[in-house]
Design a protein that fits this description.
CATH architecture of the largest domain: 2-Layer Sandwich
Keywords: DNA-binding, Transcription, Transcription regulation
Distance between the termini: 40 Å
Largest sheet: 6 strands, antiparallel
Strand content: 15-25%
Number of domains: 2
Order of helices and strands: HHEEEHEEEHHHHHHH
Number of strands: 6
CATH class of the largest domain: Alpha Beta
Protein name: HTH luxR-type domain-containing protein
Helix content: 40-55%
CATH topology of the largest domain: Beta-Lactamase
Number of helices: 10
Pfam family, one: GAF_2
Radius of gyration: 19 Å
CATH superfamily of the largest domain: GAF domain
Shape: elongated
Length: 240
């Protein structure tokens, strides 16, 4: 898929739209496939204390979903050990890989991308495609890392602490705009939904980014989610 047809903000908003682990991982895999035109993929959750990882989601290939493996095995083990994205030119040549011999994606390459949270690798996304450019790997890392908070929150490990004691920093109108930003709506769509002018919406978005200390919409949404300011919010309750 061409880079111009993939919108990171919309993908991240969709991933955070339903904070249940299975849904988060399936949506991450779906957007990964859209981004790279990949044939298959999987996500594994890391248990560094036990020295193992578990296949938690997959598409397009049978990666032994639900099974657990030592952290030195497979593409996931490569990425965990390297602490950075790893491209394997031909997956079939990887010793201790977990795809069945007849699986067609074994003949192509694989990109394994670690997902970080507070200095630790908490998951690894593996994507199978004929080839990966440097730009494609960079885009994969951006998408997967933007999903880290959703994975940690729904996996029940290393959860962020409770919301800060200080009140939510947004006005009711800003919360309404922020929720629609989370859904991936454009300025014009938000304006139509709330009965505002696009210029007014732009001012509210600017206020949200200023209060979250961020420079783009995606980062503002992720910061609000991580801080507990957006959980359970909807345009109706926010504007109420």
């Amino acid at each position: 898929m061409g880079v111009h047809s993939f919108q990171l903000a919309e993908a991240v908003a969709d991933i955070y739209g339903d904070l249940r682990l299975g849904t988060v991982l399936r949506r991450l895999l779906w957007h990964t496939a859209r981004l790279t035109d990949s044939a298959a993929g999987s996500v594994s959750l890391i248990d560094a204390g036990a020295g193992r990882y578990t296949k938690a989601a997959e598409f397009g290939a049978f990666c032994r979903l639900g099974d657990s493996f030592p952290l030195d095995e497979g593409a996931t083990g490569r990425a965990f050990g390297s602490r950075r994205p790893v491209v394997i030119p031909e997956y079939g040549q990887l010793r201790s890989g977990h795809l069945v011999a007849a699986d067609r994606v074994r003949r192509g390459s694989a990109a394994a991308v670690p997902i970080w949270w507070r200095g630790e690798v908490v998951a690894v996304s593996v994507t199978f495609a004929p080839a990966f450019s440097v730009r494609a790997v960079d885009d994969l890392e951006t998408l997967t890392q933007a999903s880290a908070a959703a994975i940690v929150r729904t996996a029940g490990r290393g959860r962020p602490g409770p919301p800060p004691a200080a009140p939510v920093p947004f006005t009711a109108r800003e919360l309404g705009v922020l929720e629609l930003m989370r859904q991936g709506l454009t300025y014009r769509e938000i304006a139509s939904r709330l009965g505002l002018s696009p210029k007014t919406v732009e001012k509210h978005v600017g206020a949200v980014m200023r209060k979250t200390g961020t420079r783009n919409r995606t980062a503002a949404v992720v910061t609000a989610l991580e801080s507990g300011w957006l959980m359970g919010c909807s345009p109706h309750t926010a504007i109420g």
